[in-house]
Design brief:
Layout: E1 10-15, H1 17-22, E2 23-33, H2 37-44, E3 48-49, E4 54-58, E5 61-65, E6 68-69, E7 86-89, H3 92-105, E8 108-117, E9 120-130, H4 133-156
Antiparallel strand pairs: 1-8, 2-7, 2-9, 3-6, 4-5, 5-7, 8-9
């Protein structure tokens, strides 16, 4: 299969590891992102922060809110605002489905990864339920117990 420009595969730009800790991730969906040229160049340098970002559905459109893409160093002054809301590209049925889940069940949309796929910027959104502090502690305890069991098994071999 030939692709435009000859770029194939997936290249990770940024991973929102904090999301896996703060939220229980239920369902994932891939979305395209509408960007300017300097934003893409900045992303190629890996200058993005997803820590406090989330996705919102307004007037039948999906938006990425709170993602910070730093200004491109070689760009002109005022090329793009780092904190601006960015439109997400999804099919209508995907937007409607996500909107229904978020509105009814009290869930939220969190970006978990941003990456290049075949030369285009994609963001992976997860439908997520927030964890309480007690839940976070339980997850840490379970992870530590699993690690200790794996270490004990490795030592036995």
């Amino acid at each position: 299969m030939s692709t435009k420009g000859g770029k194939t595969g997936v290249t990770l730009i940024a991973d929102n590891r904090r999301a896996r800790f703060d939220y229980e991730l239920l369902d994932r969906v891939e979305a395209g992102v509408v960007l300017t040229g300097t934003e893409v160049k900045s992303l190629r340098e890996g200058r993005v922060t997803l820590a406090h970002a989330y996705a919102d559905i307004r007037d039948g459109e999906a938006w990425l809110v709170g993602a910070s893409i730093d200004e491109y160093a070689q760009g002109t002054v005022g090329a793009h605002r780092p904190e601006r809301d960015r439109k997400l590209l999804l099919h209508r049925r995907e937007i409607d489905s996500l909107h229904g889940k978020v509105r009814e069940k009290g869930l939220t949309l969190i970006p978990t990864r941003i990456y290049f796929k075949d030369g285009r910027v994609k963001v992976e959104l997860a439908v997520a339920r927030g964890r309480e502090k007690l839940d976070k502690r339980r997850v840490i305890a379970e992870r530590d117990a699993t690690r200790q069991m794996e270490r004990a098994l490795r030592r036995r071999r």
